């Protein structure tokens, strides 16, 4: 008699489960069809493989070096977001094409001293040097009397 009483909760649980299955039979059948399609296509095995490796990959992705890299990238993007976009827009539009055109015609003679001097005296090089110097000067530690 005690064995029958001990199985009573199991029977009730089974009856509740069967009632739920009967109530949602269409949904369960549709789910089984989807699982079958996933299995036949190989996606189920792929998902299983991804989930099996997820913990290791997640641990690798959260290494301190990678998190530091992401933090630095976010700061760089924030700083770039404060720069006027017009020059960078022109750079994105035309620089690759100009570089490709120059690379398509390789130089046959070395750069002469006079030609190098003309390049250095160009307004574009002067502006690039000024921008670089301004950025480097901004990185200096301010004197103790002034705040950044």
Instruction: Estimate the mean pLDDT confidence.
Output: 87
What is the radius of gyration computed over CA atoms, rounded to a whole number of angstroms?
A: 34 Å
Helix content: over 70%
Query: Please, how many helices?
Result: 7
Shape: elongated
Which structural class best describes the helix and strand composition? mainly alpha
Number of beta-strand segments = 0
The run of helices and strands is: HHHHHHH
Strand content: under 5%
Query: Low-confidence parts, pLDDT < 50 over ≥5 residues?
Result: none
Distance between the termini: 85 Å
Biggest β-sheet strands, sense, barrel: none
Fold and architecture overview:
The relative contact order is 0.02. Among the domains are: 2-61, no CATH class; 112-139. The protein has 7 helices and no strands. Helix content is 80%, strand content 0%. The protein has helices at residues 2-23, 25-41, 43-61, 64-80, 85-104, 113-120, 123-138. It is elongated. The model has no long low-confidence stretch (mean pLDDT 87). The protein has 148 residues and is mainly alpha-helical.
Keywords:
80% helix, 148 residues, single chain, elongated, mainly alpha
């Amino acid at each position: 008699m005690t064995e029958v009483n001990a199985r009573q909760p199991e029977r009730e649980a089974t009856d509740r489960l069967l009632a739920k299955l009967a109530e949602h039979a269409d949904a369960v059948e549709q789910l089984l069809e989807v699982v079958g399609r996933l299995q036949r296509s190989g996606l189920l095995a792929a998902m299983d493989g991804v989930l099996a490796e997820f913990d290791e990959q997640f641990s690798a992705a959260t290494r301190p070096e990678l998190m530091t890299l992401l933090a630095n990238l976010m700061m760089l993007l924030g700083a770039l977001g404060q720069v006027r976009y017009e020059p960078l827009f022109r750079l994105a539009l035309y620089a690759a094409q100009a570089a490709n055109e120059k690379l398509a015609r390789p130089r046959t003679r070395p750069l002469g001293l006079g030609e190098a001097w003309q390049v250095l005296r160009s307004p574009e090089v002067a502006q690039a040097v000024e921008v670089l110097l301004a950025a480097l000067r901004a990185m200096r530690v301010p004197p103790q009397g002034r705040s950044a």
